[in-house]
Amino acid sequence: MNSNKTIRIALTKGRLEKDTVNLFEKIGYDVSQLRDKGRRLILEIPGADIEVVLAKAADVITYVEHGVCDMGVVGKDTIDEYGGKFFEVCDLGFGRCRFALAVKAGTDFYKGYGVKTIATKYPNVTRRFFEAKGMDVDIVKIEGSVELAPLLSLSDGIVDIVETGTTLKENGLAVYEDVSPISARVIVNPVSMKLKKNDIETLLQKMENNL
Ligand code: PRP
Fold it and tell me: Which pLDDT does position 4 carry in this prediction?
């Protein structure tokens, strides 16, 4: 448990990190360390009792669940796939994209009776999506560049993140159906929420006021 007074917040490295640092700057925090971090993974916001940890998306959830970080900023995609014991308290509105079912352009996904195969980095999201339709599918877990799977005839479709749609388009694929919207969320460890209630609520308020 991160028991001192400082709030430790885990940011998802990359795009969400940049957007969150911009938000912190808008609040008026000194983000100089965050902008000039080199390869450091733990950084301070001087004068604000905030420590920032940089982690991969799924690990943000792990650190917050274990209470070694009080809060985290992570995409709804990661939350939907991994779940966990934390409070999801705020939609930051950035990092906006969506989960979608995509197929080779011009293909009718629902045609025919055979069990379809779906390739995805998000097997839990995919399973729930098709379960809700009462449709049986085979799911193949892929680690990246999921667009390859239907092109190589490993699968009939993919469930993946679509942002601009460029990756699909440039590979002859198209969205067949939207699955769910995605954006960056703030998550909070339940024990931290009790022990550091005022400080966490103050920070959340500042973040929300500057979105
Ligand atoms: C994600 C996603 C798509 C792409 C979508 O991949 O899996 O491939 O971005 O973006 P677009 O709609 O703007 O083209 P990412 O870059 O995270 O890499 P990955 O393929 O290794 O998962």
Answer: 76
Predicted confidence at residue 1, as pLDDT, reads 61
Query: Ligand 1: which residue has its CA nearest to atom 19?
Result: 144
Q: How far apart are CA 89 and CA 176, in angstroms?
A: 31
Average predicted confidence (pLDDT) for the chain: 96
Mutation pick for ligand 1 pocket among 121, 158, 162 (CB with most ligand atoms within 8 Å): 162
pLDDT tens-place string over residues 61-117: 999 999 999 999 999 999 999 999 999 999 999 999 999 999 999 999 999 989 999
Kind and range of the H or E run holding 194 = helix 190-195
Question: Taking every pair of C-alpha atoms in the chain, what is the biggest distance, in angstroms?
Answer: 63
Ligand 1 touching residue 163 (CB < 6 A): yes
Query: What is the SS3 assignment for 8?
Result: strand
Instruction: Name the CATH superfamily for 97-181.
Output: Periplasmic binding protein-like II (3.40.190.10)
**Domain 7-95+183-209 listed as CATH 3.40.50.2000:** no
Ligand 1 site-directed mutation target among 96, 161, 164, 166, most atoms within 8 Å of CB: 161
